[in-house]
Design goal:
Shape: globular
Largest sheet: 2 strands, parallel
Length: about 110
């Protein structure tokens, strides 16, 4: 996996307003600038409209990703019994998949 590209993928609702969509892109650009410089790595972004259950797998499979890392908001309410939406979304991904929540997503904090 050494030398692979990093792409930040953000999935938004199909009905997202233009202003909110542009704010998401601006946020991704800020993250890329801060972290690309900090870790000396090239990072790109992509925003897809749709459902996390299909859009993540479609993007990862199309790009032939070697690893997918997905941050979640964590399980809430009934998800503690039925499972996290993020975990359910990985079933169609052909590549290795890591799902993290909260502090486990921070660099050096993988658990």
């Amino acid at each position: 996996m050494v030398g692979n590209d990093i792409c930040l993928l953000h999935i938004v609702d199909t009905g997202i307003a233009t202003r909110a969509y542009n704010e998401k892109i601006a946020h991704l650009k800020r993250l890329i600038e801060e972290n690309g410089n900090k870790y000396n790595v090239a990072i790109t972004y992509h925003v897809s409209k749709g459902s996390i259950f299909s859009a993540i797998a479609e993007f990862a499979n199309e790009k032939e990703a070697s690893l997918v890392v997905m941050g979640t908001h964590g399980m809430k309410g009934m998800q503690k019994l039925t499972g996290s939406l993020g975990i359910k979304g990985h079933r169609k991904i052909k590549d290795p998949f890591y799902c993290c929540s909260g502090s486990s997503c921070r660099p050096g904090k993988i658990s």
